[in-house]
Amino acid sequence: MSTSQAIYAGWMEIPNSAVDELARTQAEEATLAALVSQYSGTLYRVAYSVLRNPSDAEDAVQEAFLRVLRHRDTLDEVRDQRVWLIRIVWNIVLDRKRRAKTRPETDDVAELARVLPCGGLSAEQIASAAQHHAHVLSCVGKLPAKEREVLHLSAFEELTGVEIAQVLGITESSVRSRLFRARNLMADLLNHSRSLR
Amino acid sequence: MNSPSQNASAHNSISGVAAGDVSSPAETTLRLIAKLPAPEGIEDRVMAGVKAAPRGARVLHWPEVLQPAGGWMRGAAAAAIVFVVAGGGWGIYTHVQPTQPARVIALPPRAGGAGGFSSAGAMRTPQTLNGPVVGQPTTAKDGTAQPVEVKPVKKATAPMKHGRLRAVARGSASGQPGVSAVK
Questions:
Q1: Residue from A25, A3, A124 nearest B50 by CA
Q2: Residues in chain A within 8 Å Cβ distance of B18
Q3: Closest partner residue to B42 among A17, A41, A132, by Cβ?
Q4: What integer pLDDT is reported at residue B177 of this predicted model?
């Protein structure tokens, strides 16, 4: 006898607590759907900026929302849901990037050159822009992890210094100093490569 | 393509707050990447994936009939468990006798002799002495006793009593069968 048959037969009753739980589940699903529709684009862009692969970025977003679902009981305690979600997806992305270290960087760069907007440019300009972006990204990859992370997050206009600090779990002054160091290192790297040419 | 100066003035992020070197090519490239739009329908795909994920196990409630208000069934079940455990322990305690401590300490056999050959279970038997066999005294037809020929002792490794030898020698010298008692 299945559960529904048992309920209809009358010897198994649905208590009030079960009804409450059903309503609670529906409310949670509605909250989650709102979060997905509101922040999945932002989370995708954060994930894509590090992973540089559309399917990997989408997987990371989905995993982030699965983690939210797993910790849905603590959802009410979160102050800034946007920063909280970005922090979750940031940790997932870093973990995936660390695991997929064997993947050649050139594949990502080629994919990026194809995706980046280049309206109104000739074919030669597109090729030279793609080469430039690839060179810059290779220099970014040579930065120390702490400086690179701050530089990645600072590219997102919707994130303030305080929010970057919250995502990385550091103070705002640390964010500033790391960003300053990252810019100096990047300038050195680019100047060095330019002098080699 | 947006210029870095436009980006810096447009937003309130940390990149605009920092020093005047905002227009680094690295940040331009990273900003371009950060501005890439998300693919179409990502919300639906993510939501479908979240819904398809397995949820946690749900607990079926007891029917109201079997769920008394006082909760005495739980107490009864706990008491039954305690009774079974205690009874089992008492049964084991009463049926199992405490074992006597061993009085003899069994030593392990010594591996090999102390630098010699073993006897391999053989027992030493002392060599027995084969005494001299003396024949019956023969009587000659003329009534005179004939001297008895004494057979030599085959193995005489063990020392013999001097008295016996003396008696035999005496008998042989006198020609009388005085040693017949030695049999």
A1: A25
A2: 176, 179-180, 183
A3: A41
A4: 46
Contact assessment for residue A54 and residue B39, using Cβ atoms and an 8 Å cutoff:
yes
CB contact set of A34 (below 8 Å; sequence gap of 6+): none
State the ipTM, two decimals: 0.74
For residue A13, pLDDT beyond 60? no
Q: Assess B48–A contact: CB distance below 8 Å, yes or no.
A: no
Question: How far off is chain B from A68, nearest CA to CA, in Å?
Answer: 10
Distance of CA A61 to the CA centre of its chain: 7
Are residues A58 and A44 in contact, defined by beta-carbon separation less than 8 angstroms?
yes
Q: Which A positions 81-110 lie with beta carbon below 8 A of chain B?
A: none
Contacts of B63 (CB under 8 A, 6+ apart): A11, A12, A13
Lowest mean pLDDT among A101-105, A109-113, B123-127: A101-105
**Chain B contact for A178 (CB, 8 A cutoff):** no
The stretch B152-177 carries a mean pLDDT of: 49
B167 pLDDT band, cuts 50/70/90, is very low
Query: What are residue B178's DSSP bridge partners?
Result: none
Count of alpha carbons within 13 angstroms of residue A143, beta-carbon side = 26
CA gap B101, B63 in Å, rounded: 57
DSSP B130: -
First to last CA, chain B: 141
Tell me the one-letter amino acid at B55: R
Q: Is the pTM of this model over 0.80?
A: no
Longest dimension (CA), chain A: 85
Which residues 61-90 on chain B approach chain A with CB closer than 8 angstroms?
61, 63-65
Pick from A44, A62, A161: CB nearest B38: A44
Which residue in the set A14, A65, A183 is minimally distant from B21, CB to CB? A183
